[in-house]
Amino acid sequence: MYNLELPLISKVMGVGLVGTGYAAKLRAEAFQKDARTDLLAIAGKNNERALALTQTYNQAEAMNSWQQLVQREDIDLVVIATINLDHGKITRAALENDKHVIVEYPLAVDAQEAEQLIALAKAKNKLLHVEHIELLGGWHQTLKQNIDNLGQLFYARLSTIKREYPAPRKWTYHHDYFGFPLVGALSRLHRLIDVFGEVVSVNCHHRYWETETDYYQTCLCTAQLCFKSGLLAQVIYGKGETIWQSERKLEVHGENGGLILDGNQAMFVQMGETKMIDMGARRGLFAKDTTMVLDHLFHGQPLYVTPEASLYTLKVASAASQAAATGLTIFIKKEES
Predict the structure, then answer these.
(1) Which of 208, 221, 250, 323 lies 20 to 30 Å from 291, alpha-carbon distance?
(2) What are phi and psi of 328, to 5 degrees?
């Protein structure tokens, strides 16, 4: 397991941020508010956006090249919040330059590359934290707090589909930049695996609607996961123009009752009784994640997720991609303890 004895940080950390989108902005805001860090540089594909972000947050330097950013001696921590395709190579460059790393999921779009990066972080004795803020949110906490009331679990269904019309022409709709849907949207599988454990087999089907080679207007992906416990989970992920109604819903069914999370509402259902459950907010999770990482680096506090856990989910997502390509059931190799 990734359980390094990192030397505790005792000085203000220099931070370099790669990315200029939504997640990057929230990261920049969190670092600006924390006296333990100094946001020194921001690099992005669009230098104008990087420059605008530096003017808003701490007057950091806008850089044209992430390659130069990771080489700066005054930067201790590199945060990667850019297109999925680039996560692996930026993480590798940062670790090779002896930086701690925070990277938004997925660690890489290829599971073998992700495994190599975890090994590199261990060899360098550097933090490699793969963000999975879905584990900190109200949905997941509500699920974990109530799951013991359901009895023997046998079925779960997670549906996150979003209507976007017109579909935006951005990297999240690009085949290569985003990756296979359940790799790019790794959190959909990760929240289930975190609770239900080891996966035995995967089936998957997916479809794109597109008018050009690189970008699509709609994607729809459905997968069935058979867990070692016997639970069967159905995962539905879709977005775009041909989605006619958005849905964000998780159902977990057990022999003693069911837990239904639908948007911002949660309910526990038993024979003849439905009980509404208070559920925490979704806001502030990037800031919470950032604080937990800094608490880990400065004070040795435990983190809520390991890179190995993210890697295992990535392997399951890769198996889903293989199942979709071949039409076969893919069996997951048992992880060595």
Answers:
(1) 250
(2) -105, 160
